[in-house]
């Protein structure tokens, strides 16, 4: 019997390590996926406190792993690049509720925004206040014309700030960063 439980523990550790590595990669590309990491940590915690058996934990981790694989392919299903999907997710998660027509408008705005932003990422753009201002204005302008009416002015301002923060963190230099 002890041999079998040792085998289960090994399998569990291998699965946990694989999920942790996949999560790191997914979240590095798209921070809106942090909820997957929270779910993972909650599962581990519930096992550690004894409210889940090793079998139950293993089954739920497999389920989580499958949803991570699906998430990894979502950009393909949405017909967007991983970079476009991040902006789309920032604009749509957690709010607002959108119709499929509005979702299409947001996708279009995300694509256009990414194209326009990449043209503005000049050398050392983070250090240049003019470059940062131009980037902010481009975000505001593109989203102002591209987003559907479902966005309140307050939500619009939050989304503009979130997109700028994403670009600032993800694109340290032209042709550098997470997506290079």
What distinguishing features does this structure have?
2 domains, mainly alpha, 180 residues, 0% strand, 75% helix
Beta content: under 5%
* Mean pLDDT rating: 90
Largest sheet: none
Measured between the Cα atoms of the first and last residue, the distance is: 50 Å
- Uncertain stretches: none
User: Total domains, how many?
Assistant: 2
Q: Helix proportion of residues, in percent?
A: over 70%
Identify the overall geometry: elongated
Q: Would you list the SSEs in sequence order as H and E? A: HHHHHHH
The tally of beta strands, per DSSP, is 0
Tell me the radius of gyration: 20 Å
Secondary structural class:
mainly alpha
Instruction: Give the number of helices.
Output: 7
In short:
It is built from 7 helices and no strands. The chain is an all-alpha fold and 180 residues long.
Question: What does this protein structure show overall?
Answer:
- This protein is an all-alpha fold and 180 residues long.
- The chain folds into 2 domains: 76 residues; 89 residues.
- 75% of the residues lie in helices and 0% in strands.
- It contains 7 helices and no strands.
- The longest helix is centred in the first third of the chain and has 28 residues.
- The chain is elongated, with a radius of gyration of 20 Å.
- The N and C termini lie far apart (50 Å).
- The relative contact order is 0.09.
């Amino acid at each position: 019997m002890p041999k079998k439980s040792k085998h289960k523990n090994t399998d569990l550790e291998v699965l946990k390590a694989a999920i942790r590595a996949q999560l790191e990669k997914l979240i590095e590309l798209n921070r809106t996926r942090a909820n997957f990491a929270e779910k993972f940590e909650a599962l581990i915690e519930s096992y550690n406190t004894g409210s889940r058996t090793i079998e139950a934990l293993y089954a739920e981790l497999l389920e989580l792993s499958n949803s991570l694989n699906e998430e990894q392919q979502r950009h393909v299903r949405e017909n967007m690049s991983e970079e476009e999907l991040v902006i789309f997710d920032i604009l749509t998660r957690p709010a607002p509720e959108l119709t499929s027509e509005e979702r299409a408008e947001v996708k279009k705005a995300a694509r256009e925004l990414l194209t326009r932003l990449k043209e503005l990422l000049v050398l050392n753009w983070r250090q240049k206040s003019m470059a940062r201002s131009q980037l902010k204005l481009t975000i505001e302008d593109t989203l102002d014309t591209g987003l559907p009416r479902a966005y309140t002015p307050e939500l619009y301002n939050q989304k503009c700030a979130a997109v700028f923060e994403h670009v600032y963190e993800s694109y340290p230099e032209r042709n550098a960063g997470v997506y290079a």
